[in-house]
Amino acid sequence: MAMAPVIKLVLGSIAFAIFWVLAVFPSVPFLPIGRTAGSLFGAMLMVIFQVITPEHAYAAIDLPILGLLFGTMVVSIYLERADMFQYLGTLLSWRSRGPKDLLLRVCLVSAVSSALFTNDTSCVVLTEFVLKIARQKNLPPHPFLLALATSANIGSSATPIGNPQNLVIAVQSKIPFWEFLLGVFPAMIVGITVNALLLLAMYWRLLSDHKEEEEEEEEEENAVSEAVVEEDVQSHRFSPATLPHLSSFRSEDSSLRMDPETLRNRAVSAAENEITNRNASESQGESSNVNNMFQIKKWRRVFWKSSVYLITLGMLISLVMGLNMSWTAITAALALVVLDFKDARPSLEKVSYSLLIFFCGMFITVDGFNKTGIPTALWDLMEPYAKIDQPKGIAVLAVVILVLSNVASNVPTVLLLGARVAASAAGGEEEKKAWLMLAWVSTVAGNLTLLGSAANLIVCEQARRAVSHGYTLTFTKHFKFGLPSTLIVTAIGLLLIN
Q1: What is the DSSP letter of 4?
Q2: C-alpha count within 13 angstroms, C-beta hemisphere, residue 128
Q3: How far is CA 15 from each of CA 5, 241, 376, 393, rounded to the nearest angstrom?
Q4: Is 334 left (phi over 0), alpha (psi -120 to 50) or beta?
Q5: How many Å apart are CA 405 and CA 449, to the nearest integer?
Q6: What are the transmembrane regions (predicted)?
Q7: Residue 9: how many CB atoms within 10 A of its CB?
Q8: Cβ atoms within 10 Å of 481's Cβ, excluding its own
């Protein structure tokens, strides 16, 4: 592609630079408008500067990607309402055998949930669970927060619905869900294992020094159980005054010695007792009706939750079978809305529309920057050294993707390099491998720094805002682990991509 006229080249570069600054640093002092408004601002400048026409700007918006993103967000919202993530949080602490076991569980649960429900959603829901468990067990939070964030990024690489850049790659490359999963899954499994071992190696001593106060907990549990047993015994203890044969004998003896006034009083009290018993029976009937209603609501809830899980499972099976991904996700989302049988506004209000708008602005901005010819010129210089049929070329390409993903963010990197990397491949299997390599490296690159992915920022922000047990995950603590983990996991994964 030839370079655009100088005026368009300069103006297009300015518009893209403004978009990049606001996307990477959303709270810059001179224009603190955030990422979403920043992407729209960049798109608007591309049109105003006449780098692209309004018609081209609308055409640049990739509706299938937006549809897939919207559908998966709605499904995740209903799964959260169906307590799916609460069950995952409970699984973290269920019969835990110490800090190291808990760390491995966080890695596994984070990876699996991210592959199925996107890394951002998993981090939003699981961060507070992980932080709360760490605080309860008197453990340092940052190893577990690092395990959650890094495993979420690595795990999300396995499926097209795991993260936004994979959505883009799956739609643009037209690689079926099943082939995408098979191509990246071995790298993901080994990557999660290596990442967990690195966490254990780096924080082994720290986790060993923090022991749980198990004896006190056991004493409290024993005390509670003893109290329950004692109460249970007392409630079933018999008193001689209430034994049936003794009471009958005493009533016969006393009736022989009663005068008429006493008999009259006994008759009145018997009538009062009858009225009291009738009222008691009526109240028991009312309480039984309440219990019946409670049971009905309980079983309705169980049926609804089971239906949500079945619809989600059906969506995943449909994706594996190769059906259209965006319409499959939208269909599943609408099926859940209809199944809920109530106003869907409260659930739909939880959808991150700001993320969808951010994508719209980013599509337009990146398309405008592509039309300046700068990305093509830079790729032409680099392409001879980045051939994926040679180990040296793979290493060069991986470094370029790694750096760009942390400088320009992973989704813009995929939009800028995707078609060019695929075009440089020999075609067929080599082209598919090029797309999968791009998905793997751009995703794992998010573990390099705290700013490398949205999942990292979500974990950091959720942990900082947590009520009563907040914690700040610093850039230095993340980078200290993120650097070796990213380099080692990326290199090992590239050997397994096929």
Answers
A1: P
A2: 10
A3: 15, 92, 18, 32
A4: alpha
A5: 10
A6: 6-25, 32-52, 58-79, 180-204, 353-374, 394-423, 435-459, 479-497
A7: 16
A8: 21
Whether residue 482 contacts residue 150, with contact meaning beta carbons closer than 8 Å, is answered with yes
What pLDDT is recorded for position 1?
A: 57
pLDDT of residue 240: 33
* Alpha-carbon span 125 to 114, nearest angstrom: 11
Whole-angstrom Cα distance, residue 424 to residue 431?
8
Residue 44, class by beta-carbon neighbours within 10 Å (0-12 exposed, 13-18 middle, 19+ buried)? middle
Distance, in Å, from the CA atom of 346 to the CA atom of 275, rounded to the nearest integer, reads 49
C-beta separation of 131 from 141 below 8 A: yes
Low-confidence residues of the chain, pLDDT below 70?
A: 1-2, 210-288, 426-428, 467-468
Residue 352 backbone zone (phi > 0: left; psi -120 to 50: alpha; other: beta): beta
Strands in 313-419 per DSSP E: none
Which of 470, 490, 484 shows the shortest CA–CA distance to 157?
Answer: 490
464 alpha carbon, distance to own chain's centre = 18
Using the Cα atoms of residue 466, residue 350, residue 459 and residue 186 in order, give the sign of their dihedral.
positive
DSSP reduced 3-state for 343: coil
State how far the alpha carbon of 86 is from the alpha carbons of 69, 83, 113, 122, 464, in Å.
Answer: 23, 5, 12, 11, 20
Token code pair at residue 479:
């980078």
Output the CA–CA distances (angstroms, integers) from residue 21 to 14, 42, 227, 448, 479, in the order listed: 11, 10, 63, 19, 21
Instruction: Tell me the one-letter amino acid at 300.
Output: R
Query: How many whole angstroms separate alpha carbon 248 and alpha carbon 296?
Result: 44
Q: How far is the C-alpha of 68 from the C-alpha of 128, rounded, in Å?
A: 27
What residues contact residue 193 under an 8 Å CB cut-off, 6+ apart? none
Q: What is the DSSP letter of 5?
A: P
Residue with structure tokens 């190769």? Answer: 322
| Displacement of CA 288 from its chain's centroid (Å) | 41
Q: Between helices 63-81 and 99-117, what is the axis angle to 10°?
A: 130
Residue with tokens 């006994």: 266
Q: Token pair 């093509």 is at which residue?
A: 376
Q: Nearest-CA neighbor of 100 among 10, 201, 23?
A: 201
**3-state SS track over 180-241:** HHHHHHHHHHHHHHHHHHHHHHHHHHHHHHCCCCHHHHHHHHHHHHHHHHHHHHHHCCCCHH
